[in-house]
Amino acid sequence: MNSEFAALHGTGRPVRRLAVAEPPEDASASEIVAWAYRLHGDKLALSSSFGADAALMLHLVTSVIPDIKVIFIDTGYLFPETYKFAEELKERFSLNLHVYSAKMTAARQEALYGRLWEQGDAGVQRYLKMNKVEPMRRALEELGITGWIAGLRANQTEHRQALSRVTDQDGRMKIHPILHWTKADVENYFQEHKLPRHPLFHEGYRSIGDVHSTIPVGPDDDDRAGRFLGAKKECGLHLSAEENTSLSASGL
Q1: 235 classed as catalytic
Q2: Does residue 71 belong to any structural domain of this protein?
Q3: What sign results for the dihedral spanned by CA atoms 14, 18, 23, 26?
Q4: Per the domain annotation, does 147 fall within a domain?
């Protein structure tokens, strides 16, 4: 573990909130990535869903850290176009890709439990825990990750509006370099660097997850209006263990 990061945490159990200064207020997204790398070194990772805007973060982060670990959670229910797009971007950016899936295959899950996403709130929460939350936690632990970069933006969900550029998620530093970017900022970056969109983006899909819970949206709709699995359009990956537990207990 990076000595500066270890000193902040001590030798015992990680603290709930990280006592570390944020990067300068005027730091660019690239500068935030570089700042995180100075803290964590090879214990830093980037997560990617290989969705509509995936190429942006992959380009941004690998431009600063070419060999950063990239974690991809494969639920077994992604669009065929997503798997192909992931391979395309893997080759384009020479990604150090680590793919994690549920311990139980999708076929076995359906045989034993049926279509969990069709079984109300409890079924949805079980589905998310098995196919997204547990694989991500396993990936972070097995890869020894102390710092996690994610491409969340404040204008995507209510939960994300309350985030900071640097937060603590279950004792691990979470870094959001483009948290305050607007949709115009995103479009400008894509155009400037001539980056590809997910193939389904051009068919009206603006936020792309599993095939059974993603639909295209209209030009005036919220981008995540096409995602209807999980409370307030959060799949659980970017919620703390406490928040995930609260959602399950409340029936959301």
Answers
A1: yes
A2: yes
A3: positive
A4: yes
Range of the domain at 48: 25-250
* DSSP string for 12-28: SSPPSS---PPPPTT--
> Do 172 and 14 touch, CB atoms closer than 8 A?
yes
H/E segment holding residue 104: none
> Which helix (H) or strand (E) covers residue 168, if one does?
strand 166-169
The C-alpha atoms of residue 129 and residue 135 are separated, in whole angstroms, by 8
User: Does the pTM of the predicted model rise above 0.85?
Assistant: no
pLDDT digits (tens, 9 = 90+) for 169-194: 888 999 999 999 999 999 999 999 99
155 occurs within a structural domain: yes
Work out the pLDDT band at 119, boundaries 50, 70, 90.
very high
Catalytic residue among 55, 73, 128, 235: 235
| 3-state SS string for 136-156 | HHHHHHHCCCCEEECCCCCCC
pLDDT tens-digit profile of 64-102?
A: 999 999 999 999 999 999 999 999 999 999 999 999 999
Tally of domains in the chain: 1
In a domain, 57, yes or no: yes
Contact 48, 71 (CB under 8 A): yes
Tell me the CATH number at 48: 3.40.50.620
What 8-state DSSP symbol labels residue 130?
A: I
CB contact set of 54 (below 8 Å; sequence gap of 6+): 48, 85, 89, 151, 198
Look at residue 9 and tell me whether its pLDDT is greater than 60.
Answer: no
Across the range 209-232, mean pLDDT stands at 72
